[in-house]
Amino acid sequence: MSIEKVETVLIIGAGQAGASAILELRAQHYQGKIILIGDEQHLPYERPPLSKDAILTPEQCKLEILSAEKLLELGVVHLAGQAVVKIEPDVHQVHLHNGDVIGYDKLLLATGGSARRLPDLDALNQQVYTLRTLEDAQALIQVLQPNRRIILIGGGVIGLELASSARAKDCQVTLLEVGSRLMGRTTPAILADYLLTQHCQHGIDVRLNTQIKQCQLEGDELVLQLSNSRGDVEVLRADAIIYGIGIVPNSQLAVAAGLAVDGMSAIQVDANCQTSVADIYAAGDVATQLRCDGQYRRVETWENANLQAAIFARHVMGVAHPQANPAWFWSDQLGTNYQFVGDMGADEWYIRGEMDHSVQNPSFILFGVSNQIIVAGITVNAAKEMRHVKKMVAGHSQFSTELHLDPTQQLRKMV
């Protein structure tokens, strides 16, 4: 289909990828109709602040990606609080829950993901929370009050950021992680150990290798029976539980429409973000993309949502799209900024600077090296250096202990 025949682009999902796709389409001078459908009542908003500023400083926290005025300026029809119940690829139509039928020439599924559930905890019905939406964050503002006993389940990015926010609000915090280290899927052991010490020093009770055997509500108290890898059994009591154990792709519409998905129900897309069905694309957390090594991978980052949205928009416009950069994401915990790029499974890790737990505002860089090539990097309170580290990773720079670990040598001059 030539661009002249693309009269309507329909986007399902009013999050990061959906909003970015709109901006890129208009930036590439698409003149046709854009319809944005979101099942939330809000304007498109960013999710990274939900575990931090949206809880700690909600009055100052700006979440909107596109304001109502900007959507009007861009000529976007925004259908908020509307759920799509069916896609009919053969006739290029979608059905809404209110009975409306909308046609499209190109369709982008940017439906994101939902919090992975723990049914035994959900069955308690009250005082148990997850974090995925703005409403979730707003509910936690009232939950996280001084001296309240909070149990956090999940030692990934969301769990650690929420633990940080809870401590900032003077809560008593216990964090439970079933694995043997924090951020086990996304960070090397050397930093995981550092994070563990940092959180413990800030008064967070971290329990690794810990499973919930039983949970119940006794009056106003939540009672959890725990067991660890040593076989010890313990009972903890809390005023509230918050859990974050990953997400499940919102691919129900895609599955029902016959689109190809992987074993985790993520929508499979090619290098152009096209699905297995003509004129339907997917981007963001819901999509798993075919990579240069022939493998499909799903990347849950803010940057990836923006990149895939741009790939979709440019492919619709017949314009060369940007190539994927090494995966990059960030996390703010206990007043410290961590940024990650590249392959966190690197063979060896080297420290530039001092990983000193006694320093109030530590600043250092970790280089991940495989076969003497820099394949990953982590900056800690060194955000300005990340752009240079990204270039080293993308450029497969040769690693030199004498050069890269010498703090007197400027990284920008090594790129």
Number of helical elements? 11
Largest sheet: 5 strands, parallel
Helix fraction by DSSP (H/I, runs of at least 4): 10-25%
Poorly predicted parts:
none
How many strand elements?
26
Q: Based on CA inertia axes, which overall geometry fits?
A: globular
Oligomer: single chain
| Radius of gyration over C-alpha positions, nearest whole angstrom | 23 Å
Output mean pLDDT: 95
Structural class by sheet pairing and helices: alpha/beta
Distance between the termini: 42 Å
Please give the order of strands in the largest beta sheet: 3-2-1-7-19
Classify the beta-strand content into a percent band.
25-35%
Overview of this protein structure:
This protein has 415 residues and is an alpha/beta fold. The chain is built from eleven helices and 26 strands. It has helices at residues 16-27, 53-56, 68-73, 119-122, 134-143, 157-168, 189-201, 252-256, 302-317, 383-394, 401-404, and strands spanning 8-12, 33-38, 76-80, 84-88, 93-96, 101-103, 106-109, 113-115, 128-129, 149-153, 172-176, 205-207, 210-218, 221-228, 233-238, 240-243, 247-249, 267-269, 280-282, 287-290, 296-297, 328-333, 336-342, 348-353, 364-370, 373-380. The strands form seven sheets. The protein has a five-stranded parallel beta sheet. Strand 22 and strand 23 form a beta hairpin. Helix 1 (16-27) runs parallel beside helix 9 (302-317). The two termini are 42 Å apart. The model has no long low-confidence stretch (mean pLDDT 95).
